Amino acid sequence: MLLGQETPEQGTIYLDLASIQVMGRALIHFTVAIIVVSRDRFLSTK
Questions:
Q1: Handedness of CA 33, 35, 39, 27 (dihedral sign)
Q2: Which domain holds residue 15?
Q3: Helix, strand and coil percent figures for the chain, each rounded to 5
């Protein structure tokens, strides 16, 4: 871990398409303010 390129702050969590779609639908119905940081266009446009 110390010799690799990634630091603990740069975690990599990869979701499959089905998981992204489920999370996107769930976020639409979420009624409070949240901050989502994502490079995925499908998820970030929801």
A1: negative
A2: 1-46
A3: 35, 0, 65
